Amino acid sequence: MLLTYNDCIDKYGSDYKLKKEILKGTIFMQAKGLYSTTRNISDIEVVMSKYPKAVFTNRSAFYYHSLTDVIPDFFYLATKREDTRIRDARVKQSFVKSEMFDAGIEEMIYNNIRIRIYSKERMLVELMRFKSKMPFDYYKEIIQNYRRITEQMDFGLVEDYAYMFRNGDNIMNQIQMEVL
Fold first, then answer.
1. What's the 3-state SS for 7-75?
2. Per-residue pLDDT averaged across 53-61, rounded?
3. Three-class DSSP category at 94
4. Residue 79 in contact with residue 53, Cβ under 8 Å?
5. Residue 125 confidence (pLDDT) above 80
6. What is the structure's pLDDT at 88?
7. What confidence tier does 56 reach under pLDDT thresholds 50, 70, 90?
8. CA 50 to CA 102: how far, in whole Å?
9. What distance in Å separates the CA atoms of residue 77 and residue 65, rounded to the nearest whole number?
10. Is the pTM of this model over 0.90?
11. What is the crossing angle of helices 155-162 and 120-129, to 10°?
12. Pairing of strands 91-96, 75-80
């Protein structure tokens, strides 16, 4: 179980007593201001606790949605443009305009951890937007997996997300040619 510094102070009474508990091995420091009751804890849980407003996107979202079997090297997180820069070597951050940030956010349980992630529909639009920045075989793997789940997707939402961007017509044309 993850605890913040304030949770630990409430539980143990003072910083001194918290440090004694750490030395005893009853509580473990996972990151600055973040503690756990078990030694080993998932990095995903730590990242979600440290950055609760961030949303998984890009390669992380494709992997967590089971659209690819390529494990990402980093945690790809999207934040609003006004948010501060994340200084964590494990995280690749992208900044999104505030009016586009909230579109398609959903909560998902991944390995018993509640994460914020962009929906499959939003990620299809993002795939088309950043197609040229991905390796071709990686892109093709994701497209083939989207073709398998077309009946489960809401293409009205896909269209709404596509038209949030300047080149919405081009994005929808690409989706129709490659996925449908």
1. HHHHHHCCHHHHHHHHHHCCCEEEECCEEECCCCCCHHHHHHHHCCCCEECHHHHHHHCCCCCCCCCCE
2. 90
3. strand
4. yes
5. yes
6. 81
7. very high
8. 19
9. 15
10. no
11. 40
12. parallel
Contacts of 93 (CB under 8 A, 6+ apart): 54, 77, 78, 79, 85, 86
| Angstrom distances, CA of residue 106 to CA of 20, 84, 103, 121, 171 | 40, 22, 9, 11, 22
* b (16+ CB within 10 A) / e for 75-114: bbbbbbeebeebebeebbbeebeeeebebbeeeeebeebe
C-alpha distance from residue 149 to each of 67, 119, 146 (Å)? 10, 13, 5
> If you count them, how many residues does the chain have?
180
Place of tokens 């009205």: 156
In whole angstroms, give the CA distance from residue 148 to residue 27. Answer: 45
Concatenate the DSSP letters of all residues of 97-137 into one string: -HHHHSTTEEEEEETTEEEEEE-HHHHHHHHHHTGGGS-HH
Distance CA 45, CA 49 (A): 6
Q: Residue 172: name the closest of 136, 102, 121, 133 by CA.
A: 121
Three-state SS at 76:
strand
